[in-house]
Amino acid sequence: AKNGTDPNGYIVFCPCMGRFGNQIDQFLGVLSFAKSLDRTLVLPNFIEFNHPETKMIPFEVLFQVGTVAKYTRVVTMHEFTKKIIKAFCWNPRKAIYDTDAEPGCHAKEGNPFGPYWDQIGVSFVGDEYFGEIPGGFETSQMGSRKKWLEKFGPEEFPVLAFPSAPAAFPSKGKVWSIQKYLRWSSRITEQAKKYITNNLQKPFVAVHLRNDADWVRVCDHIDLEKNRPLFASEQCLGEGHHQGQLTMEMCIPNKQQIVDMIVEKVGSIGAKSVFVASDKDHMIDEINEALKPYEIEAHRQEVDDMYTSLAIMGRSDLFIGNCVSTFSHIVKRERDHTGQSPRPSAFFGVRSA
Ligand code: GFB
């Protein structure tokens, strides 16, 4: 190890696809990939799109580094750019990344690609392709892991840099439990706890309403004939949808269906309040109207901070999510895997037994 660097090398990548739910979804696969190649993973900056601004959020602002380090060797982006990257710059070697784009990888072309690498001071010294490796970054496939180690050994390739996440999307069921190594940072946990203490009476039901205009277009892609998985839909229908049919109600429930589901779940646990998170319409008035007979109220964050909302939903007594949304899936995985035993989650359009 020179200068305290990892002799097995590093993996650095840009979570360049989709928004937060998509980025976390793929991040689980990247953790698994880094562990299987036995390289140190450089914890990414997550990318927030506040049009027209693109903001980078360091991993450690959102999550605890110590917990993810229990799963596999990691280093923060900060530490990597301040200390480690220099060790390699003195003696520039190849960086590699994927894609079948021609004729080069164009890792820095376009947003968020360019800003991402520029901010961390990475420049690329050469293009390499891994398309011929069986299974790609699916290293559980026969011979794949061995091929990676042969073709891209740490001697010649100390840093593997990927312009997008080296992981499947949507994520495979086998990586979902890795969510247990993602714990919200104390700042976010404190904000969530404070909100709950000040605004919610327990037990409470938390609801994620994904209803901005972009979502309607996603739901147009539901294929009723082939019943193909769509984004996170396997979280409620199982892998390959072996548990049932994806419906419009699961993807974009109408107002009546939303209110009915909330009332049913409030009744089933005797909830004393409801928390609503949404990217667009929180439906507070409609929900409160329906909750009148129960004498309880629905609440939202004045400014819906998405990370705090996720943490609040994670801590609820019962969660109702959107099966197709990868944003909802973060909460579902947290509830399934971070406690002693799974905590109850439900989905719009899914009848529980
Ligand atoms: O997280 P995300 O990838 O999940 O994208 P989906 C949805 C984004 O919408 C989040 C905002 O990252 C937030 O910025 N958002 C969603 C919310 N729900 C909430 C909420 O309850 N509160 C707040 N504050 N913000 C996919 C995209 O969305 O939708 C795909 O990732 C594609 O790339 C598709 O764009 C249309 O899986 O729900």
List keywords for this structure.
alpha/beta; Rossmann fold; four-stranded parallel sheet; globular; 353 residues; binds guanosine-5'-diphosphate-beta-L-fucopyranose
Explain what the structure shows.
With 353 residues, the protein is α/β, with parallel strands linked by helices. The protein folds into 2 domains: 10-162, Rossmann fold (3-Layer(aba) Sandwich); 184-347, Rossmann fold (3-Layer(aba) Sandwich). The protein is 36% helix and 13% strand. The protein has helices at 20-37, 59-62, 65-68, 77-89, 113-120, 144-151, 186-199, 213-219, 234-237, 248-251, 255-269, 284-291, 306-314, 326-337, and strands at 10-13, 40-42, 45-50, 53-58, 74-75, 159-162, 204-209, 273-278, 297-299, 318-321, 345-347. It binds guanosine-5'-diphosphate-beta-L-fucopyranose (GFB). The site of guanosine-5'-diphosphate-beta-L-fucopyranose (GFB) has 19 residues, from helix 1, helix 8, strand 8, helix 13 and helix 14.
Concise overview:
This protein has 353 residues and is α/β, with parallel strands linked by helices.
* Secondary-structure element pattern, one letter each: EHEEEHHEHHHEHEHHHHEHEHEHE
What's the main sheet like?
5 strands, parallel
- Side by side, the strands of the main sheet go 9-8-7-10-11
Radius of gyration: 22 Å
**How confident overall, as mean pLDDT?**
91
Which molecules are bound in this entry?
guanosine-5'-diphosphate-beta-L-fucopyranose
* CATH class descriptor of the largest domain: Alpha Beta
CATH architectural designation of the largest domain: 3-Layer(aba) Sandwich
Overall tally of domains: 2
Helix share bin: 25-40%
**What is the tally of beta strands?**
11
Provide the low-confidence segments as ranges.
90-94, 98-102
Strand residue content: 5-15%
N/C terminus separation: 56 Å
